[in-house]
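hiii so um. not sure if this is the right channel but i have a protein structure encoded as tokens and i wanna go backwards to a sequence. like what aa goes where. can anyone help
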């Protein structure tokens, strides 16, 4: 999805920059899809990837490290993001929304996008910043 997606429930933006590729993340709690009494807490996250380099890049795959407040950890890897392997020319942005469930009201995600420079073709890792997802009023 290209363009700015707006949603009033998304949190403050967290960003990181690796080799002139910027990854920004916002999160939102999804109460309608959660069941706190059953230890199911659903969150959405919006990722915005901006290519500020001088070369065209392609996102090949991702790796997520996910942890909850009880110490449970998961590693998720796969091709592309939400079924796509976007190509970004210099100055272009790709944005998408996905989700994650936790067994606790607070969780964290971080990881990497593995990208390819189309010009040389060199593969490199782009850091996804650590971001916290918390139910409303959990963190003050």
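sure thing!! here u go:
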């Amino acid at each position: 999805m290209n363009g700015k997606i707006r949603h009033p429930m998304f949190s403050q933006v967290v960003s990181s920059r690796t080799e002139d590729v910027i990854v920004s993340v916002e999160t939102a709690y999804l109460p309608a899809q959660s069941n706190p009494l059953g230890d199911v807490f659903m969150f959405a996250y919006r990722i915005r990837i901006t290519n500020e380099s001088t070369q065209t890049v392609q996102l090949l795959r991702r790796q997520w490290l996910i942890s909850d407040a009880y110490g449970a950890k998961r590693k998720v890897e796969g091709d592309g993001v939400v079924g796509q392997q976007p190509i970004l020319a210099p100055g272009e942005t790709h944005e998408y929304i996905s989700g994650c469930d936790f067994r606790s009201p607070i969780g964290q995600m971080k990881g990497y996008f593995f990208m390819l420079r189309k010009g040389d073709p060199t593969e490199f890792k782009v850091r996804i910043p650590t971001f916290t997802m918390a139910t409303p009023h959990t963190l003050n």
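oh and The first strand starts at residue 14 and ends at 18.
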